[in-house]
Structures are given as structure tokens and as C-alpha cells.
Amino acid sequence: MSLSPLQERFILHWGEMGSRWGVNRTVAQIHALLFLSERAITADEICETLNLARSNVSTSLKELQSWNLARVTHVLGDRRDHFETYKDVWDIFRAVVQERRRREIEPTLSMLRTAVLDGANAEVAPDQNDPRDQRTLVRMREVLEFMETGTSWIDEMNRLDPKTLIKLLKMGARIQQYVRGPVKPLPAPQAAAGHGVLFEDELEPDAHHDTQTDTPGDRPS
């Protein structure tokens, strides 16, 4: 399977970005190759195209499958497994969000709910007489409320089809204005005390002269 220079650049960059997102570079490169491929491809083709060891490819494909970003399919007349991924970026986004929620958010929510709502059964029960624990519970309630609100919003977004979701995102500015109300203009600069202007340079030459105070040498004796 040959790649164009543009495809090579995309795959290499996807691998670099994957490492910054906490994903193995090889895993990200294989996902990029599956995303660009017009058909399902075998592990041997992945090895040959990306110049990777077979064991590395097998491990990476299992990791992609655990993220629901690679699935096995079969081709008539070929007993080998072929692999493909979502071609719609919104489907990829949803798969990543759902898996990150399962791996990262839900364990944290479980711990917070147990500590805040059922402290007696928590792994480390809060001491009702310790002000440090009481302050900590306040902070934990804030985190719990924030995460529950965020996950509820994610659930609502995941129920929408991509076209509706895109329309909703494009309406973001109008929705923000509806929630916040019309943006109020900044107040006009206040006049400077004493002579009714902001800067003394704004005075007319004659007016500027009139506002100057006499120096001791100019005062009549």
C-alpha cells in the first residue's frame, strides 16, 4: 500500500499529536492510516506501509479496538482479519469521549458520590469534627456538581445526530447571547473633575489659557 507525501505527513503528525494526548505514537499512526484508507486493510499491510514490527501492530490494533476505534471485518475469499475505523470525524469524537468517560470520569464520579453522599461507607470516611474534612467536602461537592453537569451535557450531545449537532454548535454565539442577554456597551469615559474634560489637551487654546492659575510672580501686588 503506497502513500502520497501528503498522507505520510498527516500520519506522522497524527502520531506526534497522539503522544501529546497520552496515546502511543504507533497507535495513533495506525489509526490515521485506517482513517485515510479507502478500504479495510490487514495487519500485514499496516506493517509494510508503516514499516512496523508485526508484534507492535498487533498490540496497537488491540488498543484501538479497546477504544472502539478499530473493528475487524472480513473479505470474501480471504481468511485474514481486515481492520477499518470510522470515516466520520464526529463518530471518532464520540467514541473517544465515551471511552474517556468510562476510563477517567466515571471512576472519579463514583469516588466523589461515595464520599459526599455516603461518607459512612467511603473508603476514607470524613471526620465530622475535623474542619479540614469539612472544607474538603465543600470542594468535593463543587467538583461533583461540575462533573455531573458536564457529563449530562455530553450525554445530551451524544443523542443528537451529527447534522443537528453541527447546527447547534454553529448557533453557539446566539445561544450565548440568549443566556447572557445583550452585551452592554462600555460606559463612556467620565469627565475629569474640575474642568469637565478627560484630558487637558482636549481644551481649546483659549480655554486652556483660562484654566491656568496665576503664578506667584504674576499676582498683582
Automatic annotation (TrEMBL):
Top-rank taxon: Bacteria
Listed GO MF terms: DNA binding; DNA-binding transcription factor activity
Stored Pfam families: MarR_2
UniProt keywords, alphabetically: DNA-binding, Transcription, Transcription regulation
Gene3D superfamilies documented for this protein: Winged helix-like DNA-binding domain superfamily/Winged helix DNA-binding domain
Domain (HTH marR-type) ranges: 22-80
Biased composition (Basic and acidic residues): 205-221
Annotated spans, Disordered: 185-221
InterPro entries: HTH-GbsR_regulator, HTH_MarR-typ, MJ1563, WH-like_DNA-bd_sf, WH_DNA-bd_sf
Name listed for the protein in its UniProt record: Transcriptional regulator
Biological source species: Lysobacter capsici AZ78
